[in-house]
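Postdoc handover notes: sequence design on the structure in folder B. Input C-alpha cells:
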C-alpha cells in the first residue's frame, strides 16, 4: 500500500487518509474514539493566572528558552498540572502526566539572565474544567 493511503476493508479500494467513507462502496471507515477526558473537559483560554486556586487543573506550554547558534531550546514545562499554590513569579504545581514531580511554572516579566543567556518568558496556560453534564 502506498504511503498516505488506506484500504477499504469491504472492497479493497485505495483512498486518501482523510476519507470518512469508501468512494467505491460507501463503507464507513473506523476512526479512533475520543478519549473520555476530551469529552468531559472544558478548556478556558482567557483567564487571569492569579485567580487560580489549589486543586485547579491547567495545561501548560511555552515558557523559558535558550538560543544556541540560532536554535531555540525549550526550557519550560509542557503538559497537565495540578495547582498547589501561587507566588509573585508563577505557579507551584504537581505534574499530572509527563512531569509527575513538583515544579515552578514561570509567569513573571520577560527577562534574560545575563550569566546563562536563558530568556525567561511567561508560559502559556489553559484552564481545564469539568463540563457540566446534562441528565
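Designed sequence:
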Amino acid at each position: 500500500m502506498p504511503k498516505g493511503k488506506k484500504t477499504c476493508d469491504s472492497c479493497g479500494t485505495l483512498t486518501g487518509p482523510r476519507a470518512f467513507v469508501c468512494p467505491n462502496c460507501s463503507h464507513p471507515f473506523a476512526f479512533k474514539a475520543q478519549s473520555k477526558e476530551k469529552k468531559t473537559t472544558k478548556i478556558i483560554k482567557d483567564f487571569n493566572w492569579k485567580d487560580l486556586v489549589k486543586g485547579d487543573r491547567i495545561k501548560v506550554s511555552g515558557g523559558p528558552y535558550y538560543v544556541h547558534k540560532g536554535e531555540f531550546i525549550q526550557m519550560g514545562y509542557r503538559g497537565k498540572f495540578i495547582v498547589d499554590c501561587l507566588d509573585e513569579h508563577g505557579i507551584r504545581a504537581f505534574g499530572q502526566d509527563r512531569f509527575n514531580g513538583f515544579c515552578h511554572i514561570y509567569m513573571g516579566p520577560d527577562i534574560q539572565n545575563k550569566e546563562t543567556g536563558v530568556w525567561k518568558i511567561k508560559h502559556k496556560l489553559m484552564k481545564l474544567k469539568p463540563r457540566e453534564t446534562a441528565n
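Context for whoever picks this up: The mean pLDDT is 87. Don't rerun without checking with the PI first.
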